[in-house]
Amino acid sequence: MALSELMECKNTLWFARFSFPPLLKAASKALALREGVEIHGLVCKLGFDYDPFVQTALVGMYGACRKIGDARLVFDKMSQRDIVTWDIMIDGYCQNGLFDDVLVLLEEMRSSNVEPDARVFTTILSACGKTGNLAVGKVIHGLISENNVIADSRLQSSLISMYAGCGCMDLAQDLYDKLSQKNLVVSTAMISGYSKVGQVEAARSIFDQMTNKDLVCWSAMISGYAESNRPQEALKLLDEMQASGVKPDQVTMLSVISACANLGALDQAKIIHLIVDNYRFREALPVNNALIDMYAKCGYLDGARGVFGRMRRKNVISWTSMINAYAIHGEADQALMLFRQMKEPNWITFVAVLYACSHAGLVDEGQRIFSSMVNEYNITPKLEHYGCMVDLYGRANRLREALELVETMPMAPNVVIWGSLMAACRIHGEFELGEFAAKRLLELDPEHDGAYVFLSNFYAKGKRWENVGEVRQLMKHKGILKERGHSKIEINNDIHEFLTADKSHKHADDIYAKLDEVVCKLKQVGYAPNTGVVLIDVDEDEKKDVVLLHSEKLALCYGLLKSKRGSSPIHIIKNLRICEDCHNFMKLASKVFKREIVVRDRTRFHHYRDGSCSCKDYW
């Protein structure tokens, strides 16, 4: 071979040797296992399989691609392992959740006369924080102290982030207070940690102390409010973020959309949709799926349908979200039609379509779908599916079939299933079976307020006032309070909230005057207060007063005061199931005042038009 050819070959091999590590790193980032294996084959063919730089890159590639056994095989063949190699192998175990192997490898590392440094500990702590592995995190913290490892700002941040990620906010706060300089990353971790354990005020306190805030920090605080069921604060913070010049990303918008869905504020929902379009997120699949859910929960089914219809790309979540939208609005036929167009429904899709059948009384159809899920789609039923079937039978007054299903299902019934049976018994007056279901429910959740209320109401209907007193005394002793009914209504982008017999609103006098007017007009067309829904030991006149002051009636009257006939529907959100009297009240009001009224209660929507309800009085 000529010298020039030899030199060219040598240069080519030299180039190949230094090309493999970045190529393998690229395969790691892309999780491209097939390409990574092909590169490994070429490495062996060219004789670089014992090059430490290439071997280290191979360990990283296999670890990232979840082939931890192959990563370990390469690692064990290495004759030279520096601190970087050990760190990459440890990171591979961390990514695969194999923390016991991490601790064993740390001991091997020290036996090989390689002392773990701050970088290695940071890798492990970061993984512990993400997975909530407090036990290993504490072991690592102990090793850092025992070995007098100098904790730089990155390692200190990792310790705080680990404790915050595991929900140990006292330890996280103690370390955080000792930091001389609090960087964005660690402050954001504290915000997320406090939000995760429900201490959103503490999260906000840290947020307010930060002088510089980036997008991740703003998003963490917005997400904290959204997940803590404080949607109004989340939406307000979005406005502040934009005013400060920070543009939201998809993650931020998903939190904001979720907050708006929980709030049920349609005007806000439309504004958020405009923001989505302005920032050009309208083609983002997760954002569109969230918009479908948001519009559905804000009572605007046409909005959900519009988003779904213009989507050029849809996945199973898109279809399932739209089916669920039809289901909660009582459009069972539309839900079923969409379901039949699907090619590959998943188990959540079946929950949505069974829910649609349940709330429309389609027992036979529900049974067929449940059977097809098992026999045609090979999906094993979960508790959620059995819960839907119990609810389906219960609402249709086929309570014995519901009970038989509960007793024969292959897993133990949970609180939701016993609650569904109990609720069905309340609707159909089967109080003995309901009492049985309530007591089973209390065995699983001794502080379930709904079960105590059911028992109290059950005894009250039978005028067993002594038993009523016992139940209420037990609730008082355990500190269990009945969830208070409240209703919200959105007027001119502001949310107004009402409790039963609430007089705290600044327009209370006008609202109560309007209520008197509404009641008077409804009585002229046959309305009579249904005092049967009031289960307290008072005289009939007092019961009438109680039932007329339910929160949704007050919200309706405020809506009638502040909006004009011919404008958009009056939207009301109720935290509990709407009672029979309020349901009849809304139907008559829609006819007398010629207004469409939309009420979202605990489980579904009611669209009242011209004296009728979309639920067809089946709820």
From TrEMBL:
Tagged with keyword Repeat: yes
UniProt GO molecular function: RNA binding; zinc ion binding
Residue ranges of PPR repeats: 82-116, 183-213, 214-248, 315-349
Domain DYW: 526-619
This protein's record includes keyword Calcium: no
GO biological process, one term: RNA modification
Cross-referenced SUPFAM superfamilies: TPR-like
InterPro entries attached to this UniProt entry: DYW_dom (IPR032867), E_motif (IPR046848), PPR_At4g14850-like_plant (IPR046960), PPR_rpt (IPR002885), TPR-like_helical_dom_sf (IPR011990)
Annotated keywords: Repeat
Family: Belongs to the PPR family. PCMP-H subfamily.
Entry protein name: DYW domain-containing protein
Organism in which the protein naturally occurs: Anisodus tanguticus
